[in-house]
Each structure stands twice: as structure tokens, then as C-alpha cells.
Amino acid sequence: MARGQVSLDLMRDLFRPVSAPARQRGAANPASPFSGFGLMSDEVLTPGDGVRGVRVVYRYRIAGGPTQGLVLRRHRRREPPRPR
Fold first, then answer.
1. Residue 6: pLDDT above 90?
2. What is the domain range of residue 18?
């Protein structure tokens, strides 16, 4: 997996398990309160100046309650190259 992909998945999973690997880990945990995941939209944002981010629209049921629609939008500035 590419270095940039890992950081985008970390942004996706900041509040809820949204990426496929995080949802798989959650499904293996019988104590997880999340069920009924539905991905409605997943965009990689590149507004420029080294900034990248994600905008994800999804739904979940939490602790058996009603389905909730959620929008996650996160940005991150690219880190400068490390000196060699």
C-alpha cells in the first residue's frame, strides 16, 4: 500500500471505521457498536499547494439505533521532504 493511501485511510477512520480494513477489524469485534455501514460517496480532495484530503459520505447504525447519515471532510498538508 502506498504511503499516501495510508494517511488518507487514517483520515477516513478518524471518528468511525470507514475504510475497508477498519470495517473488517470492527466486524471481528463482537463489542463494536457499529452496524449497517453504507458508503454513499468517497472523494480524494486535492485543492492544491500540497494539501490533500478526503470527503466521505456514509451511513451507520450505532448501538442498534436508527441509521445515521454522516459526512466526513478532512484535509492534510503534505509534509516537506526530509533532509538526507
1. no
2. 3-77
